[in-house]
Write a structure and sequence with these properties.
- The protein has 418 residues and is an alpha+beta fold.
- The chain has 2 domains: 231 residues; 160 residues, Glucose Permease (Domain IIA) (Distorted Sandwich).
- It is built from 7 helices and 11 strands.
- The strands form 2 sheets. Strands 1, 2, 4, 5, 6, 8, 10 and 11 form an 8-stranded antiparallel β-sheet that branches. The protein has a 3-stranded antiparallel β-sheet with strand order 3-9-7, with no helix packed on it.
- The N terminus is likely disordered.
- Keywords: Coiled coil, Membrane, Transmembrane, Transmembrane helix.
Length: 418
């Protein structure tokens, strides 16, 4: 009876060792399974990389074409201002805008491919981590069981010292395998965490590219409307085009003179109390319309009427016709030029610290001269629609002409805007 019991104990120990062998075999099989998955995923990732490289090449080709159009436009702007030349510039701008749209779409496609690549890698890492965790758990369980077997019992279970030493080496190799698996598990986990960060950033990039695409589409529509308006307004007549340019020049010069004189006269007329009131107000400059897309910059070299009217003393901010215009800072209404006709209309506000702002192409006015306004207060509505109220003889489309002046002289509004 005693001998039978001992044989039973030994049989259990043998089963445990067999279990360990099976587990190690499972690790090898599981490793092959992970390897198989990795090979499949690597193939998909390589295919995505090839597509991404192709997208990059197409983007480089588009950028090269864009540079050619940019050079053509710059050269034409140096030529004499004429209707045909201006139409040619607009045609180049339209072609360039379409290239911008194509480039934005390519960027979106490329980013989507990069997202797919990261997602495939993350899925593969998830599976690898779960498989490796299970094997480590099995190995640890088997090692624990083996720890319960005494050296004498291991010797009894082996027919020779050589078999005993082989068994001991097998256990040592298993311990090393656990250590290595834990290390690889930690590396996989770190890479998975980094992938999550990369995915978040790529999704943000994607949203930004979609906004950029919409802006490029708006630019294309803007230039298309500009060309249509130019043809309609001039009736394809060079003589009429030159006449309108001269009218625009006269109106711009008159506005410049009126604004400068108003600022000088008010500075002399205002009491020290009024000046202190303005200086103590909120003189930080805010955006006067909600869409902060600048279509023409301050002293923009691409301003189409630069050679006729002079430097662009403002920034043009994209705004739909009739957008509410708000005071950029606390101030005093110095001048309101508005009669409901199609002549150039504007509002001028005086602020503290020598600053003033001008809001051009307004289609409606909500305030009167000689009153105080606060930052954010509605003062009128934007215009700029060709042939619309307050637009003037030459506008390129709906927008707000926004000037910032320091001691009466135009300065770049972007230096003051948030």
């Amino acid at each position: 009876m005693y001998r039978f019991k001992n044989y039973k104990i030994i049989s259990v120990k043998i089963l445990k060792i067999i279990t360990l062998v099976v587990v190690l075999g499972g690790l090898m099989i599981g490793g092959n399974f992970v390897f198989s998955q990795s090979v499949s995923s690597d193939y998909e990732i390589n295919q995505l990389n090839l597509k991404i490289q192709e997208q990059k090449k197409q983007l480089q080709d588009l950028q090269s074409q864009q540079q050619q159009y940019e050079a053509q436009i710059a050269a034409k702007r140096k030529d004499k201002v004429s209707l045909s030349n201006q139409l040619s510039i607009l045609d180049d701008r339209l072609a360039q805008a379409q290239l911008d749209i194509d480039a934005a779409n390519l960027e979106i496609n490329k980013t989507n491919l990069e997202l797919q690549k990261i997602q495939i890698d993350s899925d593969n890492l998830d599976k690898s981590i779960e498989t490796r965790k299970q094997h480590i758990a099995n190995l640890l369980s088997s090692m624990y069981e083996q720890d319960q077997v005494s050296t004498l019992e291991v010797l009894l279970l082996n027919n020779s010292l050589t078999e005993f030493l082989n068994q001991a080496k097998y256990l040592s190799d298993t311990n090393n395998e656990i250590t290595g698996s834990v290390g690889r598990l930690r590396l996989d986990k770190d890479k998975l965490d980094q992938n999550k960060i990369d995915l978040d950033q790529k999704n943000k990039d994607l949203n930004g590219l979609k906004d950029k695409l919409q802006q490029k589409k708006d630019d294309l529509s803007y230039d298309q409307a500009n060309k249509s308006n130019l043809l309609l307004t001039t009736k394809s007549s060079e003589e009429r085009y030159q006449s309108l340019l001269q009218q625009a020049k006269r109106e711009q010069q008159q506005a410049e003179t009126d604004i400068a004189n108003t600022a000088r006269i008010l500075s002399q007329k205002m009491s020290q109390k009024d000046k202190n009131f303005l200086d103590n107000g909120n003189n930080t400059i805010a955006w006067p319309v909600p869409q902060n897309v600048i279509t023409t910059a301050f002293h923009d070299s691409g301003y189409p009427y630069r050679n006729i009217i002079g430097e662009h003393p403002a920034i043009d901010i994209r705004a739909k016709q009739g957008t509410t215009v708000t005071a950029a800072a606390d101030g005093y209404v110095a001048k309101v030029k508005f009669d409901g006709s199609t002549r150039y209309s504007y509002i001028m506000l005086i602020h503290g610290d020598g600053l003033s702002t001008v809001y051009g192409h307004v289609s409606a006015v909500y305030i009167l001269a000689d009153q105080y306004v606060t930052q954010g207060q509605a003062i009128g509505r934007s215009g700029g629609m060709p042939g619309g109220i307050g637009s003037g003889p030459f506008t390129t489309g709906p927008h707000l002409h926004f000037e910032v002046r320091l001691n009466g002289l135009p300065v770049n509004p972007e230096l003051y805007l948030p």
